[in-house]
Amino acid sequence: MGAAILARHELGANLRAFVAWLLPVAGLVALTCALQPSFAGDGGALAAKIQALPEGLRKAFGVGMVDFSRPAAYLATNFLAVTLIASLFGGLLGARIVAKEETMHTAEMLYAQPVSRVHVLAGKAAAAAVYAIALPLGVGIVAAAILAAVVPAPLEPGLIAALFGGAAALAVCFAGAGMLVAALVRDARSATGGALAIVLGTYFLGALSAIAAPAAPLRWLSPYKLVEPIAILARGGLDPVAPAALVLLGVAFATAGIARYRRRDILA
Amino acid sequence: MHAIEIDALTKRYGARRGIENVTFSVPAGTMFGFIGPNGAGKTTTIRLLLGLIFPTSGAARLFGRDVAAGPAARAGVGYVPGETSLYPAMRVADLLAFAGRFHPGDHARRRAELAEAFDVDLAARAGELSLGNRKKVAIVAALQHRPRLVVLDEPTSGLDPVIKARLFEILRREVAGGTTVFFSSHALAEVQAECRAVAVLSEGRLVAVDDVAELRGRQARRVRATFDGSPVDLAGLRGVAGLLRDGDTATFLYDGPMPALLAALAAAGPTDVQIVEPSLEEIFLHYYAKGGDHVGPA
Q1: Do A106 and B101 touch (CB under 8 A)?
Q2: I need a labelling partner for A180 at 20 to 30 A (CA). Which of B84, B181, B220, B256 fits?
Q3: Does the beta-carbon distance from B87 to A108 stay under 8 Å?
Q4: A116 — alpha (psi -120 to 50), left (phi > 0) or beta?
Q5: What is the ipTM score, two decimals?
Q6: Are B95 and B87 in contact (CB under 8 A)?
Q7: pTM of the entire structure?
C-alpha cells in the first residue's frame, strides 16, 4: 500500500519537471527531424566530410554510419543529444526523488508514517522509472510523427523504436544510479552533482574507449556502449540483452540505494 | 499498559552527544510531558521512538512493539515534528489526504472537522503558509486518523493563543477517549497546565520523572532586589540559592515560603524588588544540577 501511495504522489509531484524536460527536447528533435529532407537531398557533401573524420572520432560521437536518406540512420547520427538528455534526466530524477525529502525537511513527516522505508523508496523508484521511460518514448513518438509527415522514404519504425528504447533503458539505468548516489550522500546538491558526474563521466569513458585503442577496455564502464545508435543500425535492431542488462543494472543500483537508506538516520 | 517504553536508550552521533542511557515509560491514556532545555536531547529521543534514527544501544517500544522491528510499531501514531516542513507545491487539502492514506479508514470527515477547528485554509498551497499555519496543518495531519498515540514536538511554537487553547482542548478530549499524548516542550507552563507527569531531560540524560504537581510544588522564583547602599545578607534565608551580588543589587532563586522572603526583604528596605517565574534553564540548574539523582516514578 505504501509503495503505491508514494508512486502516485511522486508521479504528481514530478509531472511539471517531466513536462519541462519533454517539451524542449521534443521540440529540438522535431526540428532535427523536420530538416531530414534537406539533408537527404543535399547531404552528400556533409556525409563526405563526416566520413573524412577519424574513425575513432566518428565512433565516439555516434556518427559512424552516414546515410541521411534513411530516416532512422539520419536520426541515429543526430541521436547523441537524446541519449545524453534522457540519461541526465534519469540520473537527476533518481537522485532528487530521494534526496529532496531531507533537503526540503519533509523526511521527518514522511518516514514517521507506518510504512517501511523499503516501500517508500520502492514507490519513488517506480515513479522515477515511469518518467525515465516516458521521456525518450515521448520524444520518440514526436520524432516518428514528424518524420512520417515530412519524409517520403520508408520510416523503418522498428529501428526508430529501438533507438528510443535504448535511450529509455539508459535512463532507467541512470535513475537507479542516481538513487544510489542520493542514498550515499546527505544533501540534494551533492546527490544531483554525483548523478551528473556519473552520467557524463561514463559517457566520456565510452567516448575515450572508442578514440584510443589502449583505452578500449573502458567501454565496459560505459552503459552507453550497450545501446549505441550505430550498432543498433548495423544490427538492424536492438539486441534484447542490452536493454535488459541496463534495466537490471538500474534495478540493482536502486536496490543497493534502498538497502543503504533503510538504516540511515533521518536528521532533517 | 504502557504506550511508550524506553529502555536504556542511547544515541551518539560519533563523538557528539545525543542521549545517554534514558529509561522511562508513559502510561497509556495520559498526557505526558517531556521537557528540557534546547539541545537536551528531546528531539533525538522522539526520532528514536519513531524509527527515524537508530539507537546506539537500548530499545524503545510503542504499545509493546519494538520500534526497531519495523513500521507496524508506528501504526496508530500521529506525529507533529518540531520544525514543520510541508511539500510547498501541494495544496493543503491534498497534503492532508496524502498523509491520511498511510492510515486505514476514511478520515475525510474528521479531517474537515479538525481543519475547521484549527482554521486551516485547505485551498492554500503549503509553500504559502506561515510557520503557525504549517504547524496547524501538521497537527490536523497527526490527529485526522484518530491515533492512539500522539507525539508532539514543540507543537505550540508559532501558534496564536486561541489556537493553542483549542489544541489543548482537543488533546484533553482525545486523552479522555483513551489516546496517549506525548508532549515535548521547553514551555514549562504549558506542560504544568496540561500534563499529569513529566520526564525531564538535561544534556542528554534523564534527570527526573515527576508528577507535575510535585514539580509545581517545588518551583522556585527568581528574585532581584535593589537596596539603597550595600545589599543585606540574604544567604541565611532558607530557600535561597544561586545568590549573586552586583553592587547594590542581589539576584537569587528562592523556593521557600513567600511570607518569609517578603519579611526579610521588607526588613532590609529595598528600593526595587522583582519576583518572576524563572526560566526553565534556571529551574533545571536549581533542581537538577546534580543530574540523575532526582529520578522518581511516573
Answers
A1: no
A2: B84
A3: no
A4: beta
A5: 0.84
A6: yes
A7: 0.84
